[in-house]
Design a protein that fits this description.
The complex is a heterodimer of chains A (390) and B (450). In chain A, the strands form five sheets. Chain A has a five-stranded mixed β-sheet, sandwiched between helices. Chain A has a four-stranded antiparallel β-sheet with strand order 13-12-11-16. Chain A is α+β, with helices and mostly antiparallel strands and 390 residues long. Chain A folds into four domains: 97 residues, Ubiquitin-like (UB roll), CATH 3.10.20; 107 residues, Alpha-Beta Plaits; 81 residues, no CATH class; 57 residues, no CATH class. In chain A, helix 2 packs across helix 3. Chain A is built from nine helices and 16 strands. With 450 residues, chain B is an alpha/beta fold. Chain B has 20 helices and eleven strands. In chain B, helix 3 packs across helix 6, helix 5 crosses helix 6 and helix 6 crosses helix 9. The chains are: A alpha+beta (390), B alpha/beta (450). The complex binds flavin mononucleotide, iron/sulfur cluster (SF4) (2 copies) and FE2/S2 (inorganic) cluster. The site of one iron/sulfur cluster has 14 residues of chain A, from helix 4.
């Protein structure tokens, strides 16, 4: 059907392409390729109405159309702006776009706990990729970060609200895939909170897809938490006969063991289209079929060579000896912070995501110096304390 | 000057249908119903009326954009959410002249083909909502609302809908969401409400004052209305004046009055209170840039600044401001710009809907930095940081609230940077004394006599 729509022309970063009418700038850019495709944190092509919120996909429109070649006064969200015939768009070639994007990354990070070392999403987190690709290597934010207590929402999903970037994708999943949405966003502004009203309430079928769409580690698989790092696992395409969903999944395996099951992802990190339909998977496939025998294995999943996940794909016959064990005196820390003080670092009772600021080695030792050094800063922070609750 | 809106506001009992009708009310409805809807739209176009809600978009043009697909209802929604700090003109209109608004709604609904129209009213205005409900009841009783109005075959109902205390629900698409019973989150445009508004149907959202102004346009004709005022600022405008002035209140002006006259003449604000001097002013509600006195009374070119759309925005944001919603806030020499800016930043932080990241995170950050500076704990680099943060918010958000949060901070730094610096270099003093340095206008004594 899409073929019947008239084709129109758009130029992005100097590359011209013809696309069907009604295509968004973002999708046109994706057709050209990843070099010119703006990053996305909230848009998800398989979820209706998604996008427009995170503002990472902003681009400059230097000519609106052939008919009206005036530039658009503001940067536009490419995921929610449709192409006009003769439109000229600047993404990576626009200083203004890159500046604004850097600003957006900074905004997304100021209240983020930066607890990647203990976050299950690390390695497949879009916020990590985004900040490496488009952000600065430092922060200008000197205040306490917004924190929440983590919460199990239902038997399968854990919510780390502190890490949430409020992309609303999980809300759209619940609306569009499950039989009933039982969670949503409460409060407003930077106090917004994903919640279920009654904790532990989500167990609707297909709700597991919320985990897949979450760009960060805010929604994680409780059956997989802390079991393994994604880059140590080997993703395998597999399928089974399922009466609820397409049954086509990616198994994350190590040896014979299946650590987790997810939907299959396309190069944009979205669930793949299989036979013209988004291949969402049901909760049974995702959470209850954790044995290799449950599945017909098709073969290794193709993963972008640059992804850390592909690290495991290129097996070396003989691994070079890992010097770490020797250095660490056979401790195997979950977290590497201060190598000189290994024994102090491994403290499972410290939850990095509820620290109101970035963790330092002081976080891990009850050190007098810590207070000394941050005293001046503390002073500055204290003033803002009274305003935590409105 | 002949008042067009507030002319009868002091007539005893004007809130009641009887008195309002006796004073010539609802004439415009009688006239409108004999015209064709398109002719009314044409008349409004001719009048040059611009939206009074803040953006100043030509009303006739907006009406002509309304899509008219077969078999789909159309809606008129009156924006009475008025939550902009410093703006209180709509409340005044609705509280004292409820029938004027209803009269305007009937004419406008007829022109737009809306059989059900809504007044989305700020929740805190509960008593005003009651007044409107009473007035709507009276109008219905007398055949001006309901089925077959005055035998014309036109049906119209008006419902009031109370907001729940969110400033963002004044943004037209958030307002529609809220009206539909959802979270008040601004929609991503396009589509604009004129194509897809309330419940997906074509909708016009107009400010209370805009709709009220339709009444004199119907009565006297668009042409006559367009002759009042100057340039593209036609007709009369309500200004809600507040702050350090002798006579705060709602004034109806024609837009040829100069800012100086407006502040100092006895007809309007009556000068600065307590014999103080003028320091700065926000001429159009909290979202527009603040101007120091010297740039307020005269433009950068040295011309007299007038109270109208063009003159107030003369010089862009570098040396000008905006007409906005008509909330005129005056600051005397004792007021602290830093504290004032903090107050605004706190407001926008509290009111951001949180949908898009620059506004959600940026407004909070601005608030925190300003709190630090105001409390004598600031550092010089904080000022540049403030500037960067506001710059990163502005223009990059879904709705104009992000801009509205950024502009006041930008303008305060642009015009009063020395005051921020003074707060940072005089940490102790700024805690006890409220003000830093100030740019005063020089010609105040001349002005005081007009
Ligand atoms: C954050 C925000 C708050 C607003 N609040 C109001 C309001 O309280 N009243 C109003 O009439 N317009 C308000 N507006 C403007 C409306 O979006 C819209 O432009 C206006 O209702 C159109 O009416 P007009 O054309 O008659 O001016 C607000 C806009 C924004 C972005
Ligand atoms: S929990 Fe994840 S998917 Fe849901 S809004 Fe937050 S970041 Fe987005
Ligand atoms: S700019 Fe602010 S208020 Fe407007 S949609 Fe974005 S977060 Fe909400
Ligand atoms: S991806 Fe376009 S705004 Fe988030």
């Amino acid at each position: 059907m899409a073929d019947e729509k008239p084709l129109i022309k758009i130029t992005i970063d100097g590359i011209t392409i013809q696309v069907p009418e009604g295509t968004s700038i973002l999708n046109a850019a994706r057709m050209i390729g990843p070099e010119v495709a703006p990053p996305t944190m909230c848009y998800y092509s398989k979820l209706q109405d998604s996008g427009g919120k995170c503002r990472t996909c902003l681009v400059e429109v230097s000519a609106g159309s052939t008919k009206d070649p005036r530039p658009m006064p503001k940067l536009v969200a490419s995921c929610r702006t449709n192409v006009m015939d003769g439109m000229v768009v600047k993404n990576t070639t626009s200083e203004k776009t890159l500046d604004a994007r850097k600003g957006v990354v900074e905004f997304l990070l100021i209240n983020h706990p930066l607890d990647c070392p203990i976050c299950d999403q690390a390695g497949e987190c879009y916020l990590q990729d985004l900040s490496y690709g488009h952000g600065d290597g430092f922060t200008r934010y000197e205040f306490k970060r917004r924190t929440f207590v983590r919460e199990d929402i239902g038997p399968y999903i854990q919510l780390h609200m502190t890490r949430c970037i409020l992309c609303y994708r999980c809300v759209y999943v619940a609306n569009q895939l499950t039989d009933n949405r039982v969670h949503g966003i409460l409060d407003r502004g930077d106090q917004s909170d994903i919640s279920t009203y009654i904790s532990r309430a989500i167990d609707n079928d297909f709700s597991g897809n919320m985990i897949d769409v979450c760009p960060v580690g805010a929604l994680t698989d409780r059956t997989f938490r802390f079991k393994n790092r994604v880059w140590f696992l080997k993703p395998m395409d597999a399928h089974r006969d399922c009466d609820k969903c397409c049954g086509k999944v990616t198994l994350w395996t190590r040896g014979e063991e299946v650590f987790r099951v997810t939907s299959r992802k396309d190069p944009w990190g979205e669930v793949q289209d299989i036979d013209g339909k988004a291949a969402w998977i049901c909760n049974t496939c995702r959470f209850e079929k954790k044995k290799a025998a449950d599945w017909v294995i098709e073969g290794p999943t193709s993963i972008d060579r640059h992804s850390v996940i592909s690290a495991n794909h290129y097996e070396v016959k003989e691994m070079p000896p890992d010097p770490l064990n020797k250095v660490l005196d056979n401790h195997s820390p979950m977290l590497l912070m201060d190598i000189r003080e290994t024994s102090q670092v491994n403290q499972p009772d410290i939850d990095l995501s509820i620290l109101p600021g970035p963790a330092t080695s002081y976080t891990f030792k009850d050190h007098d110096e810590a207070t000394e050094i941050s005293k001046a800063n503390e002073e500055r922070l204290k003033i803002n304390d009274h305003k935590k609750v409105y | 000057m002949k008042k067009l809106l507030l002319d009868k506001v002091n007539v005893p009992g004007i809130k009641t249908f009887e008195v309002y009708r006796r004073e010539g009310g609802y004439r415009s409805v009688e006239k409108a119903l004999t015209m064709s809807p398109d002719a009314i739209v044409e008349e409004v176009k001719k009048s040059g009326l611009r939206g009074r809600g803040g953006a100043g978009f030509p009303t006739g043009l907006k009406w002509s954009f309304l899509a008219k697909p077969e078999g789909v209802p159309r809606y008129l929604v009156v924006n009475a959410d008025e939550s902009e700090p410093g703006t209180f003109k709509d409340r005044y209109l609705m509280e004292f002249l409820p029938h004027l608004l209803i009269e305007g709604i009937i004419c406008s609904s007829f022109a737009l083909g809306s059989n059900v129209s809504y007044i989305y009213i700020r929740g805190e205005y509960d008593w005003v909502s009651d007044i409107l409900d009473t007035a709507i009841g009276e109008a219905r009783q007398h055949g001006f609302l309901g089925k077959n109005i005055l035998g014309s075959g036109f049906d119209c109902e008006i419902y009031t809908h109370r907001g729940a205390g969110a400033y963002i629900c004044g943004e037209e698409t958030a307002l529609l969401e809220s009206l539909e019973g959802k979270r008040g989150l601004p929609r991503i445009k396009p589509p604009f409400p004129a194509i897809k508004g309330a419940w997906g149907c074509p909708t016009v959202v107009n400010n209370v004052e805009t709709i009220c102004a339709v009444v004199p346009i119907m009565n006297d004709g668009g042409e006559a209305y367009s002759k009042i005022g100057i340039g593209k600022s036609t007709g009369t405008k309500l200004i809600s004046a507040c702050g350090n002035i002798n006579k705060p209140g709602v004034y109806e002006i024609d837009m040829t009055v100069s800012v100086e006259d407006f502040i100092y003449s006895d007809e309007y604000c009556g000068g600065i209170a307590n014999g103080k001097r003028l320091k700065a002013c926000i001429p159009g509600g909290s979202s527009v840039p603040i101007l120091p006195a010297n740039l307020l009374l005269k433009t950068a070119k040295g011309e007299k600044r007038l109270m109208n759309y063009e003159s107030l925005s003369d010089g862009g944001f570098i040396t000008g401001s905006m007409m906005g919603s008509g909330g005129f806030e005056v600051l005397d020499e004792d007021q602290c710009i830093v504290r004032h800016t903090l107050t605004l930043a706190r407001f926008y932080h509290h009111e951001s809907c949180g949908q898009c990241s620059p506004c959600r995170e940026g407004t909070g950050w601005l608030d925190k930095i300003l709190t630090t500076i105001e409390n004598g704990k600031g550092q010089m680099k904080d000022i540049d940081l403030l500037w960067d943060v506001q710059k990163n918010i502005e223009g990059n958000t879904i709705c104009p609230l992000g801009d509205a949060a950024a502009w006041p901070v930008a303008a305060a730094i642009r015009h009063f940077r020395d005051e921020f610096e003074w707060h940072i270099t005089n940490r102790e003093e700024c805690l006890v004394r409220n003000f830093g340095l100030a740019h005063y206008a020089d010609e105040l004594k001349i002005a005081a006599t007009t």
